[in-house]
Predict the 3D structure of the following.
Amino acid sequence: MSFTAEVRDELARIRESRIECSKAELAALVHLEGTLGGSRSGHYRVEVATENAPVARKIITLAHNVYGLKTEFTPRRNVLHKTNNYLITFPSQSALAKVLDELGMMGGANPYWGVLPALVPDDECAIAYLRGAFLGAGFIADPKGDFHFEISVHSEQLGDDILALMQRFDIEPKIIPRRNGWTIYMKGIEPIIDFLALVGAHNALLRAEDVRVYKSMRNDVNRRVNAEVANQMKATDAALSQIESIRTIDERVGLDSLPRALKEFARLRLANPELSLRELGEAAKPPLSKSAVNHRVRRIEEVAQSLSE
């Protein structure tokens, strides 16, 4: 099951405590996923298609409980993709035109392209509408990959209105045109988690948080390993350079020509090419401080350079 399907399953099981919020949620589902058909005589019918069984049940439940509408349910199977699809039909009936007008799908004889303000008079109903919008046309990528969120809509007005509802709760998505409509999208874990918390997808939120913590720990480990490897490479390059300087001195004038302190350090380095400067200082007898080690390295390199010149 995809992460999107998991989120929809969780959201579809939430029950609104207020009839007004149930209307807002149903309005979003029908508005985003429904197809309105009708005739000049005023007989309308609506078809809503979804691939998620809990969402299909919720649409039917809301239609029955809130408005007492008759519905027809048709399960279908996509042979090519081997997936189920469910068609919910609101056949022509006396109450349907009034219901469509109340849900914001009718403006007199014309469809209404945005979110009807009367459906979202307060924050609770706005949250219900956003929940319905995601149930109908939402997508969230699996958090194991990139953090990506979308809601696809058929009109710019509807997209702008949904975007405004999200901004009401300090969630700042973006909207872009697509070939078949408009897409509200977000990238990054923070706004996506905020949305999941807002609409009540708490199990999905916890899973996303777990993945975020895992990614953060993995990235931290990778940074530390990379830093340690880089430091080790730097130390190795430095050691090779020091050994090269020591061999230059040995070949040109011999190590016995060096002062005693430099000679002992040079032989210690040749005997321990893998040690860092700190470890060399600790291996010396008596142990050498960091400044003493650096002084000896600098003097040896100066001698080698003068001999090369």
User: Anything to note?
Assistant: The chain has a mean pLDDT of 86. Residues 149 and 192 are 7 Å apart (CA to CA).
